[in-house]
Amino acid sequence: MSATQLHVWRDPLPADIAPLLPDFLEALPGPTHIQLSGRDASRCRVVVTLLHGNEPSGLTAVHALLRQGLEPAVDIHIFIVNVDAAREQPMFSYRMLPGDRDLNRSFKAPFDSDPQSRLAKVLLDCWQTLAPEALIDIHNTSGLGPSFGVVTSIEPEHEALISLFTHRMVMTDLVLGSVMDLSGRFCPVVTIECGGARSDESDRTALIGLTQYVSLAQVLDLAPNNDVIMDYFHHPLRLELLPGASVDFGNEALLVRGVTLLPDLEQLNFNHVEPDTRLGYITGELTDVLQARTSAGENRLQHFFHVDDGCLLARVRMKFFMVTNNPEIARTDCLLYFVPA
Ligand SMILES: [Zn+2]
C-alpha cells in the first residue's frame, strides 16, 4: 500500500544528492515535496512527477537539476509522488503497486475511498495553498513515440508552458481524474509526455524543459520572437477494451473474445494511419470487444474502426498517440488515443 504522507525536503545542496539516480530514489522516504528557494520569493511554480512509477524522465531531470544546484528564478516546489511503485524491483517498471489505484485517475471526489485518493487530496490541498503561477506534471508514454503536451483548453499560458518542452499539443476534455483536470481551478496546469520511458531523448526533453521552467523569469508568455510552430491535436478519443474482453500483442488472433494488437503498433505514434491499415485481430464481435467514447459519452467506434475477415482495420484517416505495448495498461486504462486526421 502506498504512503499518503508527504515528506518535505527544503533547499537540498548538490552534495546532499546521491550521484546515481537509483541511489537518489532509494534515499527518498516516500512521496516527497522538495522546496527550492528562488530569486523572486513572491512567486512559485509547481513540478509534479512520478505519479506513475514506470515513467522516470521527470525524476531523471529533477535529479540532474538538483545535482547542478542552479538557482531558480522563483520558488520551485517539486513533488515526487509514487516513490514506492518506482523503486519496487525491477526499478521503474510498476506504474503503481499491485492492488493500488492509478494515482493520476484519483484527483476527483470522493477523496477518502482509498490511500491513492487520500494522497491526491493531500497534494491538491498543498497546491491550492501554495497558489503557484503554474503547475506542470511530467510523464512518459508507455509505448515508443515523440513528446507532446496535454491541455484541457488552448490558452497562451498553456502554449508557453508546453513550448518549453515540445511543439506537439493535445487538447482534451476527457475528464479522467488526472492532475490536468485541475487546470483553471487555481493556475494553468499542463501535462508533459516526454516520449517513451527509458529513452535518452525523452530524458533530454525533460531536462531541457525543466531547466527552462525553473530558471526563466517568465514562463507564461511566449517570447516575442519565438518561432515555435505548435502542432495541435483536438479532442482525442480513447480506444478502450470492454469489460470481460481480452487483449494481447502479437500476430495471431485470440481464441477467446478479445483483441490482438500487432506488436509494432507503437511505431504509428503521431504518424498518419491510412484507411484499411491493419491494426490487429478481433475475436468475436467488434462492438463486444472495444469502445471509443467521446467526452459526451457517445460510442464512435464503428465510425473509425471496422473488421474484415477477423482483421481490425482503420476505417478513416487518423493519427494515433499513446499507443501502449503493455497489456496491463491496455486492460486497465486504454489501448491508444486517436484523432481523425
Ligand atoms: Zn503517466
UniProtKB/TrEMBL annotation:
Residues 51-141 form the Succinylglutamate desuccinylase/Aspartoacylase catalytic domain. Its cofactor is Zn(2+). Pfam families: AstE_AspA_cat. Keywords: Hydrolase, Metal-binding, Zinc. This is Succinylglutamate desuccinylase/Aspartoacylase catalytic domain-containing protein. The lineage of its organism: unclassified sequences, metagenomes, ecological metagenomes. It comes from marine sediment metagenome. One of its GO terms (molecular function) is metal ion binding.
